[in-house]
Amino acid sequence: MIYVAFIVSLIIPLLIWGPFFPDLIVSLSSLIFLIYIFKEKLFFYFTKKPLIIFFIFCTYCILVSTFVAKDMMLSFESSLFYFRIGLLSCLIWYLLEQDKKILNYFYYMLVISFLALIVDGYIQFFTGTNIVGLSKAGDRISSFFDDELIMGSYLSRLFPLLFALFIAKEKKKLETYFMTLFFLLICSLVLISGERAAFFLFCLSFAFIAIFMKDYVKLRLVLSVGFVIVVIIFISSFNQVKNRMVSDPASTITKTIFTQAHDSLIKTAYNMFLDKPTFGHGPKMFRVICKNEKYAEGIHSCDIHPHNFYVQLLAETGIIGFSFLFSAFAYVLYCAYRQFKSMILRQKRYLTDYQVCLLAGILITVWPLTTNGNFFHNWLMIVYILPVGFYLHSIYSKNRKNISF
Fold it and tell me: 185, 72, 58: which is closest to 119 by C-alpha?
């Protein structure tokens, strides 16, 4: 299983170069793991509530694609094999059960990937081109992602997992100093990427971690102060950052979340939902149905998705599909409430610091008030599901009280 764990951990750097190889690894490893589960009768992995709910959702999406979608084959592209995302989280859970040292693979893959983006991103920011000759897109940097302006999203989405593994790691004092500098470099890189939603989510996850963690008080204080200083320095020193994040009329608090174009897409999706509120129009059907004048509204009424998970699920899977995602958000809020309550009453913490960081990664995935990509997009779902496997291991493992490596 050591070799399998190493291959699965390669997903993290390969995500930088596109969805093909990560999706290939996920598909093959999930298939092999599914065969192994049936062979060894390890069905208890499927008896836990989060996975039961997820696989019910997958089954529901297939049924909606079959009986509701206007274009069944197009809808099947999203729903038919979506279950492999859940299998990936099970596989990560299983691998960690076999040997906690496997956490090393994921930790160092994250460190290497982030370090590569930090070096390359700053070179592109200051010189206009990165180390392989890719130029900035206007005043936006993307590093190895080229014309895909998702570097900030990649960093912000995976940062909580990196911090969780750092917390779990047996480390020397110098490593704490390294993580402090690393954090500030990541923070500033997300900021100068110009991705407002990504920067908002980075702030949200860090705030969640800083508030609900128990230990590392000094580190959290230093990171909080450093965070504020970095933001002030970059906004005051670089016009392209200031113009994009502050001066741009689209960068107010409300428009950081939803621009006028996003507002049009949301209204169109909402009209689609009103027409079929229970089951929706089928996965991947927004791009087809939004062309209908019956639903179209605003200046930009049609796209491949409405740029918000909750609105997309309302339009494509109805209130039933929407409820699955909302239940995940409700679970995060419940855990946050239990953690806050234990802090106020000075009781034993409901969540460990390691779990707080992982839950922060899940929070920014299910957070409703922001723009995001296609809920059924392979690249996005791989990024989003990675912290889930670690979190499942942390709550269901027999040795969950001693997760370190």
Answer: 185
